[in-house]
Amino acid sequence: MKSWKNKNWDKFSKKEKIYKQAKKKDQGSKTDQTFILTSKQWEEKILSGLFPARVVEVQKKYIFVAPENLSGKIKTKDVRIATVAKKHTQIYRKERNFVVVGDRVLCQSAVINENIGSDLPQCSLEYRLSRENKLSRIDPLLASREHVLASNVDQLVIVASYLHPRVKWGLIDRYLIVAEHENIKPIIILNKKDLLDGLEKESFVKDCINMESLYTKLGYEVHSFQADKRKISKEEKLKLKSIFSKKISLLSGHSGVGKSSIVNLLGPEIIQDVETDAILTKGRHTTTFASFLKLKIGGYVIDTPGIRSFKVETNDPFSLSWGFVEMRPYIEKCKYRTCRHERGDECKVVEALDQGLISERRYQSYLGLLLGTSGREGRMSVQMTE
Ligand code: GDP
Ligand code: ZN
């Protein structure tokens, strides 16, 4: 197979640029305009005495924020309960994604409302900064409704284990598509390397090696680890720390792959003493909540159970194939903008596939999503704007 290593994926054609810009807009619905600020408006409002904070957890009834200083340091030990300012309560009730973990908000300190029944300082939530990026999943109750899980992250760390559970490359592709669409740097971590000991000759292991090199050639960062603290080497631990240090990372991957083990190696500072508070644990099992964990090495991890099912747009072949970086140079050379890149069409993607410029594996992954044959997660969809 020819290598596409030297191709410059960032050189987008005009059409792609327009597409990217459209995607990056964070306009919100019309009614949101009084709540969502541009960076410029944000700067002005800060001067008027409001304090900036990060949303660190959202529960059915309460929003938790932690003050963030100008250098981006988030005081995760100083969690406050935020009540949405009166002027926004109407939209807040209607809008499911009004604020999500990772949102940057402006708050005003408020006097303690005894009805809330907590000793945490309280504040009123006045504005939110336009989101740089966001990750969503399908609303479990209504498939057409978007549920934003987190926003403003620096990187998406995709964790999979080689075995127990066995790595699903198709799932990694889906996470990559989401990262591409949201312009978030993805990092792939393949964990439980120790389980491959003695299996070097197995075709499964050879296949893993090929896939790792495929993703590396596509320009993705791929790391192989064993997060078991008795097995990890000093070098591996340093490497792991360097990946997470000074970044806001969103951790994703099926349960059992080793996400918690990885976080534990990074020295998380559990932010919520909050968690033991009776009123705050109410509803914990009924709502999806995300946590914003501070790491002793500097940096933060967002770990949410819902992250296993991102939205991936499957009904628009252009946007779906755009999520496969190696297809980009060909998709817009296809005869029709609506080309589904299936065999039999006059299709440049298929031509590139036949020339070995696109791997069969990734193409099949694309087709699986297009045709909805890639399992449960295949039904997800990515949105262009908030
Ligand atoms: P999570 O559900 O993704 O948070 O996964 P956990 O961190 O809870 O790990 C699931 C199981 O895998 C636990 O029993 C861990 O001890 C085990 N585990 C984690 N990392 C490794 C590893 O590198 N090698 C092996 N053999 N087991 C691991
Ligand atoms: Zn095509």
Task: Write up what this structure looks like.
This protein is of the alpha/beta class and 386 residues long. 27% of the residues lie in helices and 21% in strands. The protein has twelve helices and 15 strands. It has helices at 14-24, 39-47, 89-94, 169-182, 203-217, 234-244, 259-265, 278-281, 317-322, 328-331, 348-354, 360-371; strands at 36-37, 51-58, 63-67, 80-84, 104-110, 122-129, 134-138, 146-151, 155-161, 185-191, 221-224, 248-252, 268-269, 291-295, 300-303. Strands 11-10-9-12-15-14-13 form a seven-stranded mixed beta sheet. It has a five-stranded mixed beta barrel with strand order 2-3-4-6-5. The chain has a two-stranded antiparallel ribbon with strand order 7-8. Residues 1-15, 271-290 and 376-386 have low confidence and may be disordered. Bound molecules: guanosine-5'-diphosphate (GDP) and zinc ion (ZN). The site of guanosine-5'-diphosphate (GDP) has 14 residues, from helix 7.
Counted beta strands: 15
Integer-rounded radius of gyration: 22 Å
**Helix and strand composition category:** alpha/beta
Mean pLDDT: 81
Number of helices: 12
> Biggest sheet: strands, sense, closure?
7 strands, mixed
Q: Low-confidence runs (pLDDT<50, min 5 residues)?
A: 1-15, 271-290, 376-386
Terminal CA distance? 39 Å
Shape summary: globular
Q: Helix and strand succession?
A: HEHEEEHEEEEEHEHEHEHEHEEHHHH
- Helix content class: 25-40%
Strand composition percent: 15-25%
Strand line-up in the sheet with most strands: 11-10-9-12-15-14-13
Cofactors, ions and other ligands in the entry = guanosine-5'-diphosphate, zinc ion
